[in-house]
Amino acid sequence: MINQFRTLSLVNLLLLVAFAFFMRIAIFINLPEKFDFEFLEPYTKLLVQIPSASALAPIVNVTIAVMLVIIQAVLFNTIVNRHNLLGKPTYLPALLYVTTSGLFLQFLIISPPLICNFILIWIMDKLLKLGKSGNGMMMMFDIGMLIALGTLIYFPFIVLLVMLWLSLLLYRSFNWREWVSGLIGFLTIFFFLAVFYYWNDNIGQFFQIWKPLVNKFPSSLQINYNDYVVLLPLALIMVLAALQLWENFFRSFISTRKAFQMLFFMFIVSLISFYTKPDFRVYHFLLCVPPGAVLLAYYFSNAKKRWFYESLFAILAISIQYFLFV
């Protein structure tokens, strides 16, 4: 499977679609009666009225979700190849994106983080262009607006504001206008939201939006570790990928080094942003899939022993399927 996806061909695109549906066969076989959650944050519903997730038949929900993942995987693959993060064009990023976006049952349905991943992939593309851009101020303004749009869909997306300044530290010399422009772009969207709330005599509710930002980071979490055994093979691959990246780090182009540092920070920021959502669900960690899939793809792109890396991927895929069924 890995060796097949190391090349860029139309056949691999067809295989990717088939593999995406195969990795979700467990939920197609055991469809629940309904899904009950909201697509948008409560403070956005004054602006946009859309049906609840429960209005969709489960089969429609799951089918749309897998199609969205396939589209995201292709877009993601295009961006990784465009910025030459793996050294050669390949379909591995798409393959690893589809694989890791099917880790848990909650990943397999339409959810706010799934929709936000379109925006996250777009932001990733812009951040990877940051070092080559002559006008960083406008780019940061655009990224700030994109983060605001993501926050309207799913509040923890707001924590990605940190990526504005971490990326500037990596890619640009200090320019206070660039440091401020991203925040202005973010505030522009919420300024219009505040005006809308004011017109509807509901400005008090607008100020309630920001309360999760003062939540304390949880000192303990209630975790059923049996539900996360599937992460063990994934963690092993991540460790091997980190070792592989470290081995090649100083032999890589400077732009590639900075790109992987930026993606590492994006992964961490996406991971810890759950604290802004007291009732967060497992699907929150879909936000970690784009930056994490690049690192996984890097390992499989550079691994030498075919029997080992093919076996490792097979173990990962089988583990995911097993735990989805049980």
Automatic annotation (TrEMBL):
Keywords: Membrane, Transmembrane, Transmembrane helix
Residue intervals passing through the bilayer: 12-32, 52-75, 95-123, 143-167, 179-199, 228-246, 258-276, 282-300, 307-325
Superkingdom per UniProt: Bacteria
InterPro entries cross-referenced by the UniProt entry: DUF6427
One Pfam entry name: DUF6427
Keyword Membrane appears in the UniProt entry: yes
Protein name, UniProt field: Beta-carotene 15,15'-monooxygenase
